[in-house]
Amino acid sequence: MGEKSNSSERWLTAHHDPLASLYTFGSCMALADLHGDGDSKLIIADLGTGAYNMKLKVYKGTNLMSKNTLIDLPTGVITFHMDTTEPRVPAVAVSSGSYIYIYKNLRPYFKH
């Protein structure tokens, strides 16, 4: 018991909100510098209820920056660079249903 309490004290709880209502998997989260400003944002594909209300959410710290509706249940999120222009701003790919949706500058860009 003593070891367990010591190891839990090593973690910093930056934000704890039991009413945040975020439902997701580890594969549906990513950290990325979306604006090329050196500040990483948390990208979450929220499962909603599993049947409706699925959203792509971007957080800066504990504040919600943007929210986009997803048409189908998300299964994964990654970020990648589509071009070599400066500043290097990544695109966000979300696998949802049988498609991969690409978001550039946090706006829908391409469906594959």
UniProtKB/TrEMBL annotation:
GO terms for cellular component: axoneme; BBSome; centrosome. One of its GO terms (molecular function) is patched binding. It comes from the Eukaryota. Residues 11-111 form the Bardet-Biedl syndrome 1 N-terminal domain. GO terms for biological process: non-motile cilium assembly; protein localization to cilium. Pfam families: BBS1. This is Bardet-Biedl syndrome 1 N-terminal domain-containing protein. It comes from Petrolisthes cinctipes.
